[in-house]
């Protein structure tokens, strides 16, 4: 297993980790009324942390780095315990005394629509990784979200020095001249963030606008409509897999995690996106955000049952 060609890639996911309380209801309650919930889970959330769970389930050697609250923040303690239970190396977590992690209360209805209340964490935004070079030791690819831009920019700069893939999940709208984006070798946006950042509704047009600023691999995910990406200046589309979706919470994060892992295994971006789409589609068939992320065997079995791509 020491042969570089067979070694399990080490993936560093960096950014936000939160705590989610999720319930499934038939339809959202009217103000001032109660409804019955058919499912309930308390689970980890946040783009980078969810992606780390996905990578770990898919067999990657997984590390997480990001700011969280201090030892007395019970929510942060719980988030870390959950990540450790998934086998994720959490030594890159920076605990901020007096800081707190975000908590979300999420209702999912029968159509898979989400209603979310978030108590945002505090005092985490200024923290930087203590030693970015050390975080990157032995790492084959990094995946960052853009919730803590200062923290993850330090991670990305160290990764670019080592010449490894840097995948950026553009999940929150930002300026097109955001210096974080320029650090990516692969920028994959959510539809909301790409519309918000470019002001363009058409996702192909939004990608072409991003191209004016960024020279790297560019894609945007669009939920059940699949994913769009650029080959040179040509917009390409890959449909999503057809599944009975009941919970799309963390679908984008599972997509990004699976994409980054397969890219680090040496696959082409288009093949990594197909693998990511399959992992995300399977996740959507299960309740509970990232806790529904599939195993490697499940994704491979799912892909075996699909007609070949471009058929
Ligand atoms: N209902 C669904 N059915 C099948 N695949 C889905 C579904 N929703 C999401 N996916 C897959 O997950 C990917 C990411 O989902 P998306 O909703 O775009 O992410 P985000 O939550 O970050 O906005 C999609 O490109 C698609 O491949
Ligand atoms: Mg997302």
Kindly describe this structure.
- This protein is an alpha/beta fold and about 300 residues long.
- The protein has a single domain, classed as 3-Layer(aba) Sandwich (UDP-N-acetylmuramoyl-L-alanine:D-glutamate ligase).
- It contains nine helices and 13 strands.
- The protein has helices spanning about 45-55, 75-85, 130-135, 150-160, 190-200, 205-210, 250-265, 270-285, 295-305, and strands at about 10-15, 20-25, 35-45, 60-70, 90-95, 105-110, 115-120, 140-145, 165-170, 185-190, 215-220, 225-230, 235-240.
- The strands form two sheets. Strands 5-4-1-8-9-10-11-12-13 form a nine-stranded mixed sheet, sandwiched between helices. A four-stranded mixed sheet has the order 3-2-6-7.
- α1 crosses α7, α5 packs across α6 (about 205-210) and α7 (about 250-265) packs antiparallel against α8 (about 270-285).
- Adenosine-5'-diphosphate (ADP) binds near residues 222 and 284.
Mean pLDDT: 96
Give me the CATH fold name. Answer: UDP-N-acetylmuramoyl-L-alanine:D-glutamate ligase
CATH architecture: 3-Layer(aba) Sandwich
Q: In the CATH hierarchy, what is the superfamily?
A: Ribokinase
Note the overall shape: globular
Bound compounds, please?
Answer: adenosine-5'-diphosphate, magnesium ion
Structural class: alpha/beta
The CATH C-level name is Alpha Beta
Residue fraction in strands:
25-35%
Distance between the termini: 36 Å
Largest β-sheet summary: 9 strands, mixed
Number of domains: 1
> Helical element count?
9
What's the order of the H and E elements?
A: EEEHEHEEEHEHEEHHEEEHHH
Which sequence of strands runs across the widest sheet? 5-4-1-8-9-10-11-12-13
Low-pLDDT segments, ≥5 res: none
């Amino acid at each position: 297993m020491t042969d570089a060609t067979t070694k399990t890639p080490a993936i560093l996911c960096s950014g936000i980790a939160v705590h989610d309380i999720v319930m499934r209801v038939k339809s959202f309650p009217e103000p001032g009324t109660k409804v019955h919930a058919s499912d309930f889970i308390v689970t980890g959330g946040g783009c980078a942390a969810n992606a780390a769970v996905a990578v770990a389930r898919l067999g990657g050697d997984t590390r997480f780095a990001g700011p969280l609250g201090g030892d007395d923040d019970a929510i942060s303690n719980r988030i870390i315990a959950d990540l450790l239970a998934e086998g994720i190396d959490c030594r890159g977590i920076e605990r901020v005394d007096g800081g707190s992690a975000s908590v979300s209360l999420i209702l999912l209805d029968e159509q898979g629509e989400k209603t979310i209340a978030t108590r945002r964490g505090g005092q985490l935004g200024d923290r930087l990784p203590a030693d970015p070079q050390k975080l990157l030791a032995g790492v084959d690819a990094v995946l960052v979200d853009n919730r803590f831009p200062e923290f993850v920019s330090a991670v990305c700069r160290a990764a670019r020095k080592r010449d490894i893939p840097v995948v950026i999940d553009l999940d929150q709208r930002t300026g097109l001249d955001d210096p974080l984006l320029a650090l990516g070798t692969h920028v994959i946006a959510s539809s909301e963030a790409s519309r918000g950042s470019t002001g363009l509704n058409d996702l192909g047009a939004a990608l072409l606008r991003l191209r004016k600023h960024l020279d790297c691999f560019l894609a945007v995910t669009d939920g059940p409509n699949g994913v769009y990406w650029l080959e040179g200046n040509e917009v390409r589309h890959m449909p999503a897999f057809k599944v009975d979706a009941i919970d799309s919470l963390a679908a984008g994060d599972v997509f990004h995690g699976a994409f980054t892992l397969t890219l680090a295994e040496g696959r082409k971006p288009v093949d990594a996106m197909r693998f990511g789409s399959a992992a995300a589609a399977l996740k959507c068939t299960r309740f509970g955000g990232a806790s529904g992320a599939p195993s490697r065997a499940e994704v491979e079995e799912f892909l075996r049952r699909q007609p070949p791509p471009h058929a």
